[in-house]
Amino acid sequence: MCGIFAYLNYNVSRERRYILEVLFNGLRRLEYRGYDSSGIAVDADLASSTSSSDGAPYAGVPPLVFRQEGKIENLVRSVYAEVDEKDVNLDAAFSVHAGIAHTRWATHGVPAPRNSHPQSSGAGDEFLVVHNGIITNYEVLKETLTRHGFIFVSDTDTEVIPKLAKFVFDQAHDEKGDVTFSQVVMEVMRQLEGAYALIFKSPHYPNELIACKRGSTLILGVNELSGQNSGKPFHDVKALTTNGKPKELFFSSDLCAIVEHTKKYLAIEDNEIVHIKDGSVSVLKFDKDKEKPASVQRALSVLEMEVEQIKKGSYDHFMQKEIHEQPHSLTTTMRGRLKDGGILLGGLKEHLKTIRRSRRVVFIGCGTSYNAALAARPFVEELTGIPVTMEVASDLLDRQGPIYREDTAVLVSQSGETADTLLALDYALENGALCVGVTNTVGSTLSRRTHCGVHINAGCEIGVASTKAYTSQIVAMAMMALAIGSDQISTQARRDAIISGLSSLPRNVSEVLKLDVEMKDLASSLIDSESLLVFGRGYNYATALEGALKVKEVALMHSEGMLAGEMKHGPLALVDENLPIIVIATRDACFSKQQSVIQQLLSRKGRLIVMCSKGDASAVCRSGSCRVIEVPEVADCLQPVINIIPLQLLAYHLTVLRGFDVDQPRNLAKSVTTQ
Q1: Distance between CA atoms of residues 289 and 215, nearest Å
Q2: How far is the CA of 157 from the CAs of 38, 130, 410, in angstroms?
Q3: pLDDT, tens digit (0-9, with 9 covering 90-100), for 570-608
Q4: Could you tell me the end-to-end alpha-carbon distance of the chain, in angstroms, rounded to an integer?
Q5: Which SUPFAM superfamilies does the annotation name (predicted)?
Q6: Residue 2 annotated as catalytic
Q7: Measured between alpha carbons, how far is 349 from 371 in angstroms, rounded to an integer?
Q8: What is the DSSP letter of 173?
Q9: pLDDT digits (tens, 9 = 90+) for 505-550
Q10: Distance separating alpha carbons of residues 665 and 659, to the nearest angstrom
Q11: Among 96, 132, 650, 674, which is 20 to 30 Å from 241 by CA?
Q12: Which of 2, 435, 590, 621 is catalytic?
């Protein structure tokens, strides 16, 4: 759940000040992945090396390593203060330079400089590593290395990696006299267990970087600076980078950190080692059972993302921007997929017959993605006639719940890197199920390892609390249900109505966003409340769960989404004149039941806020004693897309009014890559 970033300039002069800013900006783009500590490593001045390198195990000087607790700006301030104190020359220029950086979400050890990355092999910083993921056998490795005289100074699992690299390097040097950087890293990988993305830097191998991964996302970006671009697709990244021309190379946990530099990228595969040396990129395939890795050819892809997507623009926060982007993101999700009154999903086309023959569909997700799947369940069942079961990924794994060869497992994850969801994917694959991925991230692990899938194309989402990805996930799964059920004549009229509703959905979302001021006013009335209940049922049970989750995540206010049908079985005891309760009562098959719920709550002096379809205010609250939020009425199965938006706005304004960080809420991070 961390962000790692690296920048290497080759045959192009870059001042240290520029290099630092590239690294800092890379971390800023990745800060949503973790923000309790951070660090960077850059090269020192060679001219100042004479005295400091005496007795050093390598020619040259140790790199400059900076670590700091807190957010990225804390690191920036401390680096420039330390640079002034040490009289480091920020104007020093390097024609070749390799720098690495890291922003952390703590898993092993409290946020503190000693636990921040880059983690070091020890005195002289012979090997430095930035790491995203978890090393599951670190305790065994730590004991072994301790017996060989290594002293550990952090509480992290990561520290074993650079120390293991030094141990491998020293042993190889004693036996063979020479060892390459990639050989060292390959032997380190042989010993590691768990999920990780790693970037190595070492003064033994100046101006080189090595990255490798197993289970965590890692991207290589390539920016040619020669000014000559044939416009032809590159078939081999090595052929492109061995030309000796000036270039910039990047490693990143996410595409959003490289889009301002280049649109040419390579999604590194599991067990690949990417070695940058002399401006050339070599890709090796690591196999634990083989002594030597195989060299592989990889093609660069072209990133379809604009720099504007990773900037706030005129908005105060990314969450606010992403809420208001939903008319556009939904349009993008549907673009090219609503064809001639039908649905065209290229990623599913070859597998539709298999899905139709499934004994059941199993939706698997976590958090917001689970809620989106829950919102989709009713109409998937209705349009396909296939039973649908819901699974929280971690619970499925804990129970080892039954998955059969005749099942279709639909795994939903915004990032495509959610650890529990990926482990559930492994479990489903082992059991022979057809696995379908629904993700926002092209090239993610989920998109690569499932048999087929749907990209939701919602655009880069930076706010930790998911908003536009949630609504795009629902729409993507609605289209999936329409495509699967397209062979059934009995549901043709229903499908036509839903497709018509999809076409007008962005316009209706724009309409509901006009409630922004009204939701801010509602938030101000709830600012001192300690709890919030949200009741929904049918299509909008998921809306209740997701709305409560948003308030919980960012406003740090206790909130619970509940199935309205369960109100009488316990939750009714909580109702009094002080507890705010939101009841979702828009027009659908459950409308009359929700009217009954409202009356029961009012009879117990409940403090009600009712969400209803436009024109239904008098029908849901005849006495006028409750606050009403009126939203546009759309096809009932698409109503959750409309209904969640006022709750997203409420959560946003509550957070701002309560003085909390909207985009980086306490203790959370965007991509949950740990169990």
Answers
A1: 19
A2: 16, 12, 33
A3: 888 888 888 999 999 999 989 889 988 888 898 888 899
A4: 10
A5: N-terminal nucleophile aminohydrolases (Ntn hydrolases), SIS domain
A6: yes
A7: 26
A8: H
A9: 999 999 999 999 999 999 999 999 999 999 999 999 999 999 999 9
A10: 11
A11: 132
A12: 2
